Amino acid sequence: MSGNIRSKGISTRAIHAGEDRRSSTGASAPDLVMSSTFLIDEEVSFSATNLDADSPYIYTRWSNPTTAQLEEKLAVLEQAEEAIATASGMGATTAVLLQFLSHGDHLIISSTNYPGTAEFARQSLPRFGVSVTPVDTRDPGNIENAIRSETKMIWLETPSNPLLRLADIAAAAKLATQQGALLVVDSTFATPIATRPIALGADLVVHSLTKYIGGHGDAMGGAICGSRSLISELRGEALTHYGAVISPFNAWLIMRGMATLPMRMRAHQENALLVAEFLENHPNVEAVIYPGVESHPQHALAKQQMDNFSGMVSFRVADSKKVAERMMSDLEVIHYAVSLGHHRSLIYLMQTEDLIESSYQLEGEALDDYLATAGDGLFRLSVGLEDPSDLCEDLDRVL
Ligand SMILES: *Cc1c(COP(=O)(O)O)cnc(C)c1O
Exposure of 245 by Cβ count < 10 A (0-12 exposed, 13-18 middle, 19+ buried)? Predict the structure, then answer.
C-alpha cells in the first residue's frame, strides 16, 4: 500500500505500511528475498556513495527488497521521512555515533542507559578523539550546562535502562537546534506506539528491533529513522561500509511482528500496570519504578510524552542475589533472561556493582543518586503478554 498510508490509523499503518503489493506472484504476504546479489541489466556505479532511491537492487549490503519493506514500515510508524534497518540495535547505535561524530567533536549522553551504548560512548569513542559528557538528562538544564562549542550530538534514551528515567525530548530538541547539534533518541523502550521523537524535534530515532518491534524474541535487528538526507548519508557510509546489515529473513520476521505492535503494546501496558500494582503492594518489595503509576517521579512527563507506558517495570527487594537465585530455579512462567519486549515475560537482576564499574562509571552525587534508587541491584522485568494473574503468582512464589 502506498499513497495516503501515512494518514491512516496506527493499526492500519502497522499492518500495511511498506508492504509491496507488486509482488510478481500476487502474494498477499511480503516476499522474502534471500538473494545477496541481483542481476544487473544496465551499467551501474559500483560505489555505494552514488546510490539513490531510484537505484536498482545490486547487492544486499546496500539494499534488499524485503528489508526495504521493513524500512518503509518503520519510517511510516515513526513519522520519519526514511529509515534504515541494521543487524542489531548496537549496529544502529554505532552507525549513528561513528557516522556523525569526528575527531574533536563532543557528545552529551544520558549518564545511565543501555550498557552497550554507555560502554561504547565511554570506552570506544574517546579512542577516535571524540569527547563525551554523560549527564542526568532528566533535567534539560544539565544538558544546557554541558553544551560547548564542539558539541555535535545529544543522545537521549527515554525511558532509560534500567532506572526508567525519562528525558523531555522537546526541551532537548530546542537546545540541540540552538547549538546546531543533532538530537538522537534511543526509543527502544517507548516504541513508536508510545512516542514519536521526530515529531517532538529529534533528528534521529534509534531502535533495537530485537525488543518490542520484533516482539517475539526470535530475530535481532536495529533501525535508524530520520530525514531523507541524514538517512541517505547513513546508507552511503555507515550501512554499506561498516556492514551491520540485517538478514532479509530477520527483516521479514520483524515485519511480521511489527504488524501487531499496536495491540501488543496495549496489552503490555495493561499487564504492566497490574503487575506494578501487585509489586507495590507486596511486603517484600522495597521500591517499584513504572512510568505509568503516580509514584513515578516523572509521571507527569510520561503522560505528556508517552501515549503508552510500555511494559518495563523495575523493582528493588532486599537480598536481591538470593531472590535472583530463586528466580532461576523456581519461576514457572517468566524467563530469567536478559532482553525485553517479547511476548514472553523476561526478568533479570541488573546488579549495581557491575553497571557502575563497567558501564556508567558514576561518582559523587550521580553515584549517590543511582544507589538511592537501585540499591545493590534492580530487577528489570519485561512484562509479557501472558495472563497477568499467572505472572503475579509466579513472582509471589520467588519474592
Ligand atoms: C537492547 C537495546 C539496545 C541494543 O540492541 P541489540 O538489538 O541488542 O543490539 C540498545 N538500546 C536499548 C535501549 C536496548 O534495550
Answer: buried
Q: Is 161's C-beta closer than 6 angstroms to any atom of ligand 1?
A: yes
For ligand 1, whether the C-beta of 160 sits within 6 Å is no
In order, the DSSP letters of 72-113 are HHHHHHHT-SEEEEESSHHHHHHHHHHHH--TT-EEEEESS-
Per residue in 280-323, pLDDT tens? 999 999 999 999 999 999 999 999 999 999 999 999 999 999 99
Q: Rounded CA gap, 222 and 213, in Å?
A: 9
- Segment holding 44, helix H or strand E: none
Cβ–ligand 1 distance for 265 under 6 Å, the answer no
Ligand 1 touching residue 157 (CB < 6 A): yes
Q: Which atom of ligand 1 is nearest to the CA of 161?
A: 13
pTM: 0.97
Are the C-beta atoms of 290 and 272 separated by less than 8 Å?
yes
Domains of the chain: 5-258 (3.40.640.10), 262-398 (3.90.1150.10)
208 ligand 1 Cβ < 6 A: yes
Q: Which residue lies with its CA nearest to atom 6 of ligand 1?
A: 89
Q: Give the angle subtended at the CA of 243 by the CAs of 153 and 158, to the nearest 5°.
A: 35
